[in-house]
Each structure stands twice: as C-alpha cells, then as structure tokens.
Amino acid sequence: MIIHPQIIEKQGKKEYVILPYEEFLLIQEELDDLNDLHDLRVEKEISKDEPTRKLEDVIKDLNI
To answer: What is the dihedral of CA 48, 53, 59, 62, to 10 degrees?
Structure first.
C-alpha cells in the first residue's frame, strides 16, 4: 500500500498527519483485520484443549 501523507509541523516539530480519505479507509480496514486476527489467535490459544466437533455434526444438530 502506498500512502501520501501530508505532515503538519508546529514550532518545527511534526505534529499532525493528513491522509487522503480513501487511504485512511484502507489503513483502518487493515487495522481492523489485524485486530480480528489477533483476537482469533488469542481465542484459539484459549480453547486449544477444548473438545471439537465436526461441522457435519453441528449442522445435523441444528437441522440445517
């Protein structure tokens, strides 16, 4: 991903970044995906010793 930031300085110190809105949305989506992946990995680790079931069995129990 290529971004086109505009840096705004205050008293010679970098203070703010402005991005085109579309680039902001892409970064936000990437961060959301990264957070989802992190949450998935945490839950997978927490539940690693729990018993599992086949998807077919779950579908049968739900009468789908």
So the answer is: -80
> What pLDDT is stored for residue 38 in this prediction?
98
Residue with tokens 């989802």: 36
The tokens for 52 are: 């599992």
pLDDT at 1: 86
Q: Please give the C-alpha separations between residue 55 and each of 19, 27, 50, in angstroms, as whole numbers.
A: 44, 34, 15
Q: Which residues of the chain fall below pLDDT 50?
A: none
Could you state, in order of their start, the residue ranges of all structural domains in the chain? 6-62
Q: Which long-range contacts (CB under 8 A, 24 or more apart) does 15-18 make?
A: none
Q: Which two tokens stand for residue 3?
A: 């971004």
Q: What is the C-alpha to C-alpha distance for residues 61 and 64, in angstroms, rounded to an integer?
A: 8
